[in-house]
Specification:
Layout lengths: L5 E6 L3 H12 L4 E5 L5 H6 L1 H20 L13 H24 L4 E4 L2 E5 L2 E4 L2 E10 L3 E3 L13 H4 L8 E5 L3 H12 L3 E6 L10 H13 L3 E4 L3 E7 L2 E6 L4 E4 L1 E4 L3 E3 L32 E3 L10 H16 L13 E3 L5 E5 L2 H7 L3 E8 L4 H4 L5 E8 L5 E7 L3 H14 L3 H5 L20 E2 L1
Helix pairs in contact: 1-4, 1-8, 3-4, 3-6
Length: 452
């Protein structure tokens, strides 16, 4: 009989924690999971899912405009932000219930409350003390605000999902995927939207062609995207906000959103007192098996700041459960992970950018195509899509695939198999396309536009 109350105690009921818990319990482990907010974590409650629901909603104004070119006459369309938020909240509540059942179904015990480590095997929660042989920290991360005068007046993505009304004028601060997504959302619903980024171009770390193309398309849609500028001060001006910028100008807005970074949720958990090593950004340091510097304590998901994506957290949690209780030891594999930005238009990528490939390979070939999608030949919209393949010339292996345009995430998911499996450009070329689609462009690009 175990000397501990549980074989596994998981702190955090988000995607990674729930996956690790339910799979471990399915293998026969005695598991408990604690969550201080709502089960489902960032992705389900105030991240990927509600964000994409809002992004879908923001698409409709263009759909109504585009319909005219296809013979439709649409009049009297009205939008209600409160109705959208209420519908979104109802769906999130439904999903939270599913996440709870995913745990209780295989026998996990769930705690609603904040769990803190008293020692490596002891957890305190809701005035109760329990013990566990193994502890997993899966507490995710949270948005941060810039340390500037008036920074407390800014909202973050958390609050953006619960605004009682749609602001008429919005400033989004940041150039990452969250900033680009919310700029598209607010703009799509009709708010006058300004996006400010201190760097030279949005989506730092993405392929340069993708970054430039997205910026052009965002501006076409009416977003006032300004790069090389930042906010130095925020203050109230009547019922509005005034933002002073580094270029000496100022802006007025009804709401200003900081999308300037996220920080792992490690504060106040008792980790440092136990000797759990954290990096300079407060993320938990882990080895290739997700083990921390304390032998029986593991960490997965955004709290480790490896690749902060929901499917990665799920993968890490599943690997941990398989390794510890399923007699199938395996390390998380973080290579060739596809990702998407649900901006307007969408961005999706997998593998190496052109810039990364040039650093790592002696010679590469670049295949690139920019075109007007068939839909817009009748809609009249000036939107253009961009597709790009990065290929190692020596082996003909496809190193990266990149796209800006409608349905980019759906298309790149298929290309992720190509990159992950190490397939060659010749194999891609031998694939017959589906016509007429945008996706077929990936199998019809025959001539390198850049070779080096």
């Amino acid at each position: 009989m175990s000397k501990y109350d549980y074989d596994l105690f998981i702190i955090g009921g988000g995607s990674g924690g729930v996956r690790a818990g339910r799979i471990s319990a399915g293998y026969g482990a005695k598991v408990a999971v604690a969550e201080e907010y709502r089960y489902g974590g960032t992705c389900v409650i105030r991240g990927c899912v509600p964000k994409k629901l809002l992004a879908y909603g923001a698409d409709f104004h263009e759909a109504f405009e585009d319909a005219v070119g296809f013979g439709w006459t649409i009049t009297g369309a009205e939008f209600s932000w409160p109705r959208l938020i209420a519908n979104k909240d109802r769906e999130i509540t439904r999903l939270e219930g599913i996440y709870r059942k995913l745990l209780t179904g295989p026998g996990c015990e769930i705690f609603d409350g904040r769990a803190v480590l008293a020692d490596a095997h002891t957890v305190q929660i809701n005035g109760r003390t329990v013990t566990a042989e193994t502890v997993v920290v899966a507490t995710g991360g949270a948005p941060t605000k810039p340390d500037i005068p008036g920074g407390d007046l800014l909202i973050t993505s958390n609050e953006a999902f619960q605004l009682p009304d749609l602001p008429k004028r919005v400033v989004v601060i940041g150039g990452g995927y969250i900033a680009c997504e919310f700029a598209g959302i607010f703009n799509g619903f009709g708010a006058k939207t300004v996006q400010l980024y201190r760097g030279g171009q949005v989506l730092r770390g993405f392929d340069d062609d993708i970054r430039e193309h997205l910026a052009v398309e965002m501006r076409k849609k009416g977003i006032d995207l300004r790069v090389g500028v930042d906010v130095v001060n925020v203050s109230r001006k009547g019922n509005a906000l005034e933002l002073k910028l580094t270029d000496g100008t100022s802006l007025e807005a009804d709401a200003a959103m900081a999308a300037t970074g996220r920080r792992p949720n490690t504060s106040g958990l008792g980790l440092e007192a136990l000797g759990v090593a954290l990096d300079a950004g407060a993320a938990v340091k882990v080895d290739e098996w997700s083990r921390t510097s304390v032998a029986n304590i593991y960490a997965i998901g955004d709290v480790t700041n490896r690749i902060n994506l929901t499917p990665v957290a799920l993968h890490e949690g599943h690997c941990l459960a398989d390794t510890m209780y399923g007699k199938r030891p395996r390390k998380p594999n973080h290579e060739a992970v596809a990702s998407a930005v649900f901006s307007h238009p969408n961005v999706a990528v997998v593998g190496l950018s052109e810039q990364q490939a040039r650093r790592d390979f002696a010679a590469i070939d670049i295949y690139r195509s920019s075109f007007t999608p068939l839909k817009h030949t009748l809609s009249g919209r000036r939107e253009r899509s961009l597709m790009k393949l990065v290929v190692d010339r020596a082996t003909d292996r496809v190193l990266g695939a990149h796209m800006v345009g409608a349905d980019a995430p759906e298309i790149i998911q298929g290309l992720a198999i190509v990159v992950k499996a190490g397939l060659t450009k010749a194999q891609v070329d031998a694939t017959i396309g589906i016509h007429p689609t945008s996706a077929e462009e990936f199998v019809t690009m025959r001539t390198p536009v850049v070779a080096s």
